[in-house]
Design goal:
Blueprint (H helix, E strand, L loop, with lengths): L1 E6 L5 H14 L7 H10 L7 E7 L4 E9 L8 E8 L8 H15 L4 E7 L2 H9 L3 E12 L16 E5 L8 H11 L13 H9 L10 E5 L2 E10 L4 E9 L8 H15 L4 E7 L3 H10 L2 E12 L8
Helix pairs in contact: 1-2
Length: 317
């Protein structure tokens, strides 16, 4: 029986480690460390109203967790999100419902109109979301590559004229060109919630300074000195590598630059000792899915985005 839904204790390493353990058990396709969990809270924009909730059983064990907050960068006010995870060994005891209830109460108190949640596209998970009033929207795949044995392509012996490869660390003194490329490439990303990507300081805080970002394994493609494409590498410092974002600025698309960036990054990640590579793609993003399939990535799970209109007029403030 669940006895407590509470906030993560940010100064308690054991609490953060418990959140990592639950997330890994429920969704084993993502990078996760205790340091990363602590960073989520510390770097969150105040307008995000971000909380990490935990469900604690009567024996003191953390059996579930949820991320909840406001999409503060959305052009449409009142968009909230909640992603809940329960240890598969402790499902059916009410942790998921209790977490969702607490998360929705928080969103309602913050004047959110809608709640968005990613849900594994499996019958029990879909049924849970539907029982709680959520309806299905878009979907996305998790993909995995056995990096230790994958037959990765070689880099071209000679790059096309004007094309250069640089690690992310080459931009340590001035990351703004990468911010601008990230913002430009993200304009065409599929999504349910429209966003404005124009806050450089916020990007520095939660993207550039993210503890998972490995600047040496992040690859940037320059064309005549201009950032044209990139792949951002997230790593756990042990065996797991993830493509956090791969993008090409619109004027440079159709030249294979995203493939070039991923090839370079994956080869260097393998040389650094990483053995598993993960990435995610919207199911409608055919070009990127095709690129990843050519590398040997295989779909290992699918998530569906569910949404719910929250009850209004219940804000206790």
């Amino acid at each position: 029986m669940i006895t407590t839904i509470r906030d993560l204790r940010p100064n308690d390493p054991h609490d953060a480690e418990s959140v990592v353990r639950v997330r890994r058990a429920a969704l084993p396709f993502m990078i996760g460390t205790a340091r990363g969990v602590a960073f989520e809270l510390a770097s969150a924009h105040p307008a995000k109203r971000y909380r990490i909730l935990v469900a604690e059983a009567g024996d003191g064990q953390v059996v579930g967790t949820a991320q909840v907050g406001i999409a503060y960068d959305s052009t449409e006010p009142g968009q909230g999100f909640v992603n809940a995870y329960v240890d598969p060994a402790r499902r059916g005891l009410g942790a998921g419902s209790a977490l969702l209830r607490a998360a929705e109460e928080h969103l309602t108190a913050e004047d959110a109109k809608d709640s968005y949640a990613w849900v594994l596209d499996e019958p029990p998970h879909r049924a849970f979301a539907e029982r709680h009033g959520y309806r299905a929207s878009r979907s996305a795949h998790f993909l995995r590559l056995d990096l230790a044995s994958a037959a990765l392509p070689a880099l071209p012996a000679v790059l096309p004229a004007g094309v250069e490869l640089r690690p992310g660390s080459a931009f340590a003194a001035d990351p703004r060109p990468l911010f601008e490329a990230d913002a430009a490439a993200s304009l065409d990303e599929p999504g349910d919630v429209p966003t404005e990507f124009d806050d450089y300081e916020d990007w520095l805080r939660h993207t550039w300074n993210h503890p998972y970002l490995d600047l040496e394994l992040t690859t940037v493609v320059l064309v005549d000195g201009e950032v044209a494409a990139f792949t951002a590498a997230h790593c756990d410092g042990a065996t797991r590598y993830s493509s956090a974002m791969t993008g090409t600025v619109r004027d440079f698309r159709g030249r294979g630059l995203a493939t070039l960036a991923k090839t370079d990054s994956l080869l260097r990640a393998r040389a650094a000792g990483y053995t598993q590579a993960f990435t995610g793609n919207d199911t409608g993003n055919g070009p990127m899915l095709a690129v990843n399939t050519r590398f040997g990535y295989e779909i290992c799970a699918t998530e569906t985005r569910f949404t719910k209109r929250l009850a209004q007029g219940e804000n206790p403030r």
